[in-house]
Design a protein that fits this description.
The protein has 595 residues and is an alpha+beta fold. 35% of the residues lie in helices and 21% in strands.
Length: 595
């Protein structure tokens, strides 16, 4: 079926259900960013397969809202359909709520699937809609029209040993129970899949590139229950759960578990992480009192313990060796006149990663983007749609690996040959922006909202910007995007020692060029004075930054000094794991810049 034919079928079901508009988020029952295919309804309906977007269908029109990372991709993938692209945060573009309020009349109804829609979104809309006499009804209208819908994943759930995690599941559960008490609560439903995986020291592969598994945890001060199909849990993992005081119940019984609470219980609920149907189940149980607040597991796992930090650094060393070998290989192939495509780059990189001990899979699909393709922030080459590398311009490589001892995320932009003056300037602006964050010393209490400008000002001064955050947290053998901290102007979560953050400013000019340079940084204690505690960032991405495009006249001495020190650290870290030929190459790539 075409997109328009699918939308026509949906409208038939809307009419039968008596709803005049239907909202399809990019979500699952766990409000995940990366979804099992079973819940990728928005992508199936619209044709747009980016990770972020919301589709709204009324009786006569449809629109898709997404952010600046995906404007180009969404426009291309939805071409020929009736769907209108609404570019979020652009001037004059209505929000989803504003759009619905302008289309729905008093007495009309918005339909949602409450199992895959965040409680926060629905509660906000209820407040706005009730004043206009507009109703909201929870009903699944997708299943009846999606005839070949993929099954819910059932990959094996296995144990990640404590030599990697640093803490037992019982110790982590005790930390969460303590946080619950601090928030005046007795219990919570852990719904985020990455939180459950971290909490129980279990991993799986229900979603490609992710290490989570479809499940819930109901946690009280007395009991911990994992809701998952027990047949998929390895014997070792089952024994571990029992040893750590965790019972197992079928995945589909979570609503029954909430309903069965028979003593007065205060439940802490993060409405942005809990689906609306689960929220209603808590509301409907007269013994349950809801207290809204932050999800404590999410916050706890963001601060890496010393064992996780040491393991993650080791994973990055292995990743650095693999990526350095890829760069050497590409240089040799292009120098020999061989044909190399964007898809070849990803395949070669996987081969080099497989040489490293503990490599499991990539942490996201390789973004190997040549020339103008790099202007699309989340471009992915395919066998049907890719470019061939030439000995000019830039190759942007954004990639990461899942290792048994850590998760990596790295971006480098390589000069393949002749560059224009504009390309060199853009590259240097981005490098200065990257260094701007990396060199920052900041007071305790500062957040991404405070620090984002330390990077962005380096492109703002030239009238440029990038339509995304500057950086995000990275999970431990987990999701490539991890909060609650991030480097963006809207994030007010204070940085703490042990948190990780990516530093990845960029310039993206459609049809022309894309440049991004990314390192991962660790928040560390720096000093304490009479004015308070000061923190700094420590890079733990071990890979040369290409210096051939740099316009030295645009760099100051402090920036050059930082880059030279960084490259000295990269050489000292990687060279012991390399051959003599590789060390000679690495020495050249990390030689000091002089102005």
């Amino acid at each position: 079926m075409t997109t328009n034919e699918k939308l026509s079928l949906l409208r038939e079901k809307m009419a039968e259900a008596g709803v005049q508009a239907y909202l399809i988020p990019s979500s699952d029952p766990h409000i995940s960013e990366y979804l099992p295919d079973h819940w990728r309804a928005r992508a199936w309906l619209s044709g747009f397969d980016g990770s972020a977007g919301t589709l709204v269908v009324t009786e006569t029109e449809s629109g898709l809202w997404t952010d600046g990372r995906y404007f180009i991709q969404a426009e291309r993938q939805m071409a020929g359909s009736e769907i209108v692209l609404y570019r979020m945060k652009e001037k004059g573009v209505p929000t989803i709520q504003e759009f619905l309020l302008s289309r729905l009349k008093k007495g009309q109804v918005l339909g949602i699937d409450g199992m895959v829609t965040a409680a926060e979104m629905v509660l906000d809309m209820e407040t706005a809609f009730s004043a206009q006499g507009i109703g909201i009804r929870s009903e699944d209208l997708i299943t009846p029209i999606w005839s070949d819908r993929p099954a819910i994943p059932q990959s094996q759930v296995y144990l990640l040993p404590e030599q990697y995690t640093g803490l037992s599941a019982a110790e982590k559960i005790a930390q969460v129970r303590s946080r619950l008490k601090e928030n005046g609560a007795d219990a919570m439903a852990v719904t985020r899949l990455d939180s459950i995986a971290w909490l129980l020291n279990l991993r799986a592969s229900d979603v490609v590139y992710n290490t989570s598994f479809v499940s819930y945890v109901l946690l009280t001060q007395e009991a911990a229950v994992l809701y998952v199909d027990s047949s998929r849990v390895s014997e070792e993992a089952m024994d571990y759960l029992k040893k750590n005081g965790v019972a197992v119940r079928p995945y589909g019984e979570i609503l029954d578990g909430i309903a069965a609470i028979d003593v007065p219980t205060v439940m802490l609920v993060s409405v942005e992480n809990v689906n609306y149907r689960l929220y209603l189940a808590m509301e409907e149980n007269p013994r349950v009192t809801i207290v809204k607040g932050e999800e404590p597991v999410f916050c706890l796992k963001a601060v890496k313990n010393p064992v996780e930090i040491a393991n993650t650094k080791n994973a990055h060393i292995k990743e650095g060796v693999a990526m350095a070998r890829l760069q050497m290989c590409l240089e040799e192939k292009l120098a020999a006149g061989e044909t190399v495509s964007e898809t070849d780059v990803g395949e070669l990189l996987v081969d080099f990663r497989k040489e490293q001990e503990g490599y499991m899979e990539d942490s996201f699909a390789v973004i190997a983007a040549y020339g103008a393709n790099a202007a699309m922030m989340h471009y992915h080459p395919t066998p049907e749609n890719h470019a061939v590398l030439q000995r000019k311009g830039f190759l942007l490589l954004d990639t990461g690996g899942q290792y048994v001892d850590g998760t990596t995320d790295t971006t480098r932009t390589y000069a393949l040959g002749e560059l224009t003056d504009e390309e060199r300037r853009y590259y240097t602006y981005v490098l200065k922006a990257n260094i701007g964050i990396a060199r920052t010393v900041f007071m305790e209490g500062c957040s991404g909202a405070n620090l984002d400008i330390m990077s962005r000002t380096q492109v703002w001064k030239y009238g440029l910007d990038y339509r995304c955050g500057t950086g995000h947290g990275v999970g431990f053998v987990g999701p490539i995007h991890e909060g609650p901290q991030s480097l963006r102007m809207t994030n007010h979560v204070p940085f703490q020692p042990g948190m990780t953050i990516t530093d990845e400013p960029g310039i993206y000019e459609e049809g022309l060029v894309g440049v991004r340079i990314e390192n991962e940084l660790l928040v560390v204690e720096h000093m304490e004075t009479k004015y308070g505690k000061f923190y700094a960032f420590q890079p733990f991405t071990y890979l040369p930054i290409d210096t051939t495009p740099v316009v030295l006249e645009l760099m100051n001495e402090e920036e050059i000094s930082w880059l030279n020190d960084y490259h000295h650290m990269v050489y000292d870290t990687l060279s012991p794991r390399m051959t003599e030929r590789e060390r000679i190459w690495l020495k050249e790539k990390t030689k000091p810049l002089e102005k």
